[in-house]
Amino acid sequence: MTWPDYLVLFGAILGIAVYGIWRSRKNRDLGTYLKGAGDANWLVIGLSVMATQASAITFLSTPGQGYEGGLGFVQNYFGAPFALIIIAAVFLPIYRRLKVYTAYEYLGTRFDAKTRLLGAGLFLLNRGLGAGITIYAPAIVLSTVMGWRLDLTIIGSGLVVIAYTVSGGTDAVTHTQKYQLAVVFAGMAAAFAVLISKLPPNISTHDVFTVAGGFHKLQAVDFSVSFGKRYTFWSGMIGGLFLALSYFGTDQSQVQRYISGASLRESRMGLMFNAVCKIPMQFFILLLGCYLFVFYQFARPPVLFNETAWNQGLATASQPRLTELERQFRAAHDDKREAIGRWLDASHHADFSAVEASRVQAAAANEREESARKDASKALKEAGIKSSNDTDYVFIRFIVRELPHGLIGLLMAAFFAAALSSKAAELNALGSATTIDVYRHLVKQDDAHYYKASRLFTVFWGLLAIGFALFANLSENLIQATNILGSIFYGVILGIFLGAFFFKKIKGTAIFIGAIIAQLIVFVCYFRIGERVTYLWYNVIGCALCLVIAGSLQVILNQRKEVGA
Amino acid sequence: MSTPEPERETETESTGLPAFPTWRGVYVFVAVFFVVIVALMILLERSFA
Asked: Where are the beta strands (DSSP E) in A210-358?
């Protein structure tokens, strides 16, 4: 990066953070700190909800998902529009009527104090761990590629977000998110435009889709019924519905965004904005990945996109093996490029038998290329070189190698803006839930005291997240790691809330015990069965177990009561 | 199973959208929009399979 890049990066990030502090400088009471000034319109809420969910991982890692697996990942979000409808129609009016600070306050009203503590506790555990990933994920990729020190990247970005979140609370978070999202969209649009311009001049949009389709990258919807497949229409519609219902409806980092609306209408419209925009947004980010795939059919890709790990590997005893794999990889790539050239020529002349023949040759060369790539990853692992999934480096490598200076800074600003916006919402929510659902429950004081406590808890969670990030080590694709972690907890949390909203006969003790047993079963299932059941289904399993066990327990408790009477 | 009772005045609150005066209409629009998006994605896939 050169000085124009650093100027854009620091100008955008620090400028937005300072704006957040200035914008909320008069907010000095508990209500405004936790729920904002109550003047947010639907667009601010909609963008805030979107920015909270779309972290840096979304923009850094998802194009790599598209590069490797095509559009199929979009199915993960198929349940989201329906979840948002249910939340807008059922959850939201109740939260607003009760004027709660946190979603878990409602559990206290509906059930009892222990269930409220359990709901808040599961949230704090899940989100507290997730908060570390939110900081670590972009930091590991950006520091590796840019040559920055990982610890300083984590600490620097962590301290910026703590500063404006602690200073301005919900108002600062909500109003900075709209500008952060603007930087993100500007960066992504610029990267897409450069990518298109870098394709060979004789390659049309139709050719791009022909190549992407020929390698099955455009398969967005898979109707097959398989519990082991990560992304199918059914896992997205059912598992994704439960995940989205739990995330948007019960996760305080989201609830805090939309209960701060000026009115119920503004909050509902903000949610509907996301119901409409979420899938198209993910589709275009994945499509960017498909374009990257096609770009690297004509430009020579590296064996591994994580160049630092590759260079470290070359400095070990694995060097001869890696060099041989690189030779095999290059030969396969050259064969593939030639086959694709013949394929597109034949396609332009409507010579379908030649199209099929050259497509098969390209696919065979692609398999050889992928095989060399997998062997190289294995060789690095055997040489003791740690690296997160290589697909996380696909997009960032393209940015660093292909974008002009100034735009590189804009993209770096986009990733940091996305990281800060979701991180700020998480810290804001963690501080609020700790103060309102745990601390206020244990220590009786006035609101001025809780206001100070909330700020201190926000600092505490921020420092804990930085600490967790400094010691984290992930091997999964980063966005999948975040979703897997969420799915382990979200099902049970949703079960508690659905019990509260829809099953009036279930009382506090039954749901409390049911939730604990269900969570333990989900843990055991995940560690015993693992990926034989794809993670989205754990949302359904956790929720169903919680409700069934709680319902059964309630029947038993009622019978005991009758016998006792 | 029983459904909860939301605030009474919220049910009659206007959406402020001329094309969709009721919330039910907005929800139906979102559902239809989803179906159209999925259909377009299937069409894209089939066109370049």
From this structure: none
